[in-house]
Amino acid sequence: MNIIVCVKQISHIYVHQAFDKITRQLTNTGVVHTLNPYDKVALEAALRLREQGLRKQDGEGGVTVISIGPKRVESALRWCLAMGADRAIHVVDDAAPDKDPWPIADLLARVIQSQDTGHDLVLCGRKAMDREMGQVGVFLAELLDLPVVTSVAALTVEPTSSKAMLQRSLERGNRETVECALPAVFTVDKNLHRPRYPTLPGRAQARKMAIERISLADIGGERISATLEVTTMAPPRIRPKKILSPDSNLSAANRLQFAMSGGMPQKKGGQIGGDPTAMAIGIFDFLKDRNFLPKPNRES
Amino acid sequence: MTGILPVTQHYAGIPGNVWLGVLTTIAVVTFLIVTYNRFRLLCAGNKDPRFSSVKERLKGLVLEGFLQRRQPRYPVAGVLHIVIFWGFMVLGLRSLNLLVEGLFPGTTLPFLKGDVGVVYDSMKDLFELTTLAACIGAVYHRAVVKPKRYDGSHRFEAYLVLSLIGILMLSDLVYEGAGYRLQAEETGWAVGSVAVSYGLSFLAPQVLKTVHVTGYWVHMIVFFVFLNLLPLSKHFHIITALPNVFFKKQVRGRLKPATFEPAPITELTYAGVGKVEDFTWKHMLDFFSCTECGRCTDNCPANLVGRNLSPKHMTMRLRDHVYGTSKAPRSTGKETPLIGDIIATDELWACTTCGACEEQCPVFIEHVDKIVDMRRHLVLMQSDFPDEILQMFRNLEIFSDPMGMGPARRTEWAEGLPVESLSKNNAVDVVYWVGCFAAADDRYRSVARTLWKIMTGAGIRFEILGAAERCCGDFARRLGNEYLFETLARKNIEALKACGAKQIVTTCPHCYNTLKNEYPDFGLDVDVLHHTELLTRLIRDNKVTFKTGDKARITYHDACYLGRYNQIYLPPREILGHIPGVDVIEPERNCEKGLCCGGGGGYMWLVEQGQRVNEVRAAELSTHAPDLVATACPYCMTMLQDGLDRQKDTGTPVQCMDLMEIVDRFMTN
Fold first, then answer.
1. DSSP track, B592-621
2. Less Cβ crowding at N or C end of chain B, within 10 Å?
């Protein structure tokens, strides 16, 4: 069984980027590149299927990893090899149009079709964590003329039959069980598996293995032009302090002022901790301080 | 000295010395065979270069071996042991002399002739009496006092050996005493023998002779039985302990590297200990030397809170496994996996690497290195570790710090301060190694800012590496991820060399230990100072002075990586001592016996099951109701503050502060 896993090296978005407050200059120290976690899970799924012994009767099967991008992508592919992939293909494209999924899917489809080994299963992550498009897998299925199942949360392939049983994650924890004939394209959810951590022998092996470099010319020339264009990107607006409704006791002018300044100071909240007695006393005091408790009856 | 030599008599028509010769040959040959097999096990171990700095090693051997410096930490057992040890030293010679006298009647060891002999005879009598008393005391200690640390040790062996030693003493006294009586000789100084000789005065000469002869033979037979018992029992330490002390670790805080070859870890395909052969020869010697005294377990914080770890039992099980006497013997040809079968994984993940076990071990067994070596096998070879560490490893790999804050935020703590971040135009002398915790933790950032204030006030110019600084890798290393550690270490060393730093100041003892003791293995050679050392210097030079007036009762908590690993016990106390109005209250366990905060060895990022070490420690620290708890480690501070907040009976929780902050509070500006 030949499994192809498409992976992306993402720019990590958690890191505060670029502005060094001391030198007051833009730097690239904050940009960190790493393998997309969803793709890691896809690779893990592929490796597990391989370990189940799902091989074609006529010959070897294996896990092939494909990635598109500049030279730095190699480190992500090395990680995949260290995890246990059999082959890694690097489509060298210094200006990978990662803002548009169509050319990417097109390139991937061309690479996959150019492989003599064929493919029984193509796995992708459900989405990349940096751009969150979640479309490449679907487009790829279209271009390869294969069925596609998205958000795969459980995956079993029977060794004898050529179909897969899957579960898809839906809203609110619902699951949908799907049966799909192979070959097919699956995009996996992050909760499918916990990806393995590379071992020392795995890393040593990965360093020895060659990454196959493919240029655009090898797979039929230039990429198709992008159909999407990102016109602008805005950082998140500073979140206004939450308030359910403006305080009606305030004058209209004050209310207006607060609305324009982005919100009103949040009503002070607190958390009562400690043992049950302390918590009970805390709640009682809270209610008493805010006059929620009935006044003691003076007559009695 | 005694006229009638038992060996000159004939037994079954054959002279006694021939019998003795046969006995000696058999006993020595069997002893040599068993010992040789043990030695072969030792040679099967991995390499570990321990033959350098002979002078320091000899010094250690005298202090810790012959003078038994660690023994009195347990006063009763310690003193008893010292008496028996010195009894052995002196009386070994006596038994040897008896053997030589017996084998070649009429001869004596050359250096025991004449006046020396007389002095020695009287001395050995004293030693025989005290050793005999110590044996009885030791039996009483084991049988009646029953310290908990002996649980699970070989009790029968202990009693057997104590009684054998007792018999050796008694038989010699009886032999000599009966001899004196027979000859009516008065050797005034041999007090023990003379006393016995008076005691035997009622016996008829013929009986006396039998007693005399029997005393000799009992002594010789027991001597040889004892000799052969040594390599077969925990009392092998009588032979191996002194070499083990000689070969002890020279740098306490330096963890054994994954390999002693110069190869970087990226070229290795095997690391850690997954089977006994992977242990080094020194670790084998450790197994031979364990006496099952249980001091390690007695001081282990993991054991204290009921986790499944007892360093003593771990060593015993490993030893049994090495000897092939465990339930799954190695001789079956099937290799028993060490981890899982002999050592449970949760044992390995229970250790906080605080080093209390190693600190207490009288024969310098290295428990932490073995545990980390087995962790290495789990992490690097089997990729098997608690789930919660994965996130930490990932953060280290992607962001180069355990919290995942990223390099760009490393300088946030210095916002608003004119701290210079690695200017490339001129080389700096002093680099402040901020460390991940001071860079990321809101609470601990104040320590870094205070350090800046004090250093600048004292006129010390320093810079920081800023975004070029990465995690020192201590936790990755202690958690067994040597690969990650080495990757981080090499990058850090490159950055430090590039800026030409001559001195590094750290606030975190973990960074301090790693930079000072472990980075030299990878090529860093810079003077490293912890802030407590720096403060001591500044105070001595009067660059930091204190105001009078404020008063506070402060308890100082020793950080393991500062105290036990780097012997910095006194500077923190000196600093507090300099502050007028500060009363230092020592907690029950302090200095080398100080209890871990529970956060070391990666435990900061592990889930603690059951009782928590930091709560136990916090309760200990707040016994004497201090105003403040002082420490000098970010991890201790976090763990202890958590623990102090959870103390129930104290109204407002006691605050835990870094020494730096305390100095700042009391110093004159």
1. GGPPP-S-TTTGGGSPPPSS-HHHHHHHHH
2. C
d(CA A292, CA B431): 59
Instruction: Compute how many other C-beta atoms are within 10 angstroms of the C-beta atom of residue A220.
Output: 13
pLDDT-derived band at B657 (thresholds 50, 70, 90) equals very high
Residue B223: which of B290, B159, B172 has the closest Cα?
Answer: B172
Q: Could you report the predicted ipTM of this complex, rounded to two decimals?
A: 0.83
**Bond before A183 cis per omega within 30 degrees:** yes
Contacts of B594 (CB under 8 A, 6+ apart): B356, B557, B558, B560, B563, B564, B587
Interchain CB distance below 8 Å, B383 and A22? no
CB spacing of B390 vs A12 below 8 angstroms: no
Residues B189-214: tens digit of each pLDDT: 678 888 888 888 888 888 888 898 99
Q: Which helix (H) or strand (E) holds B205?
A: helix B205-229
Contact B125, B94 (CB under 8 A): no
Task: Report DSSP letters for A90-152, one per residue.
Answer: EEE-TT--TT-HHHHHHHHHHHHHH-TT--SEEEEESS-TTT----HHHHHHHHHT--EEEEE
Residues of B with CB under 8 A from a CB of A: 265-271, 379-383, 385, 387, 390, 393, 397-399, 404-409, 411-412, 414-415, 419-421, 466-467, 483, 648
- B220: tokens are 């010789």
The confidence score (pLDDT) of residue A160 equals 74
Task: Please tell me the pTM assigned to this model.
Answer: 0.87
Q: Which residues of B touch A203 (CB under 8 A)?
A: 266, 483
Q: Rounded to the nearest 5°, which phi and psi values hold at B95?
A: -65, -40
Instruction: Of B628, B630, B467, B663, give the one whose Cα is nearest residue B546.
Output: B663
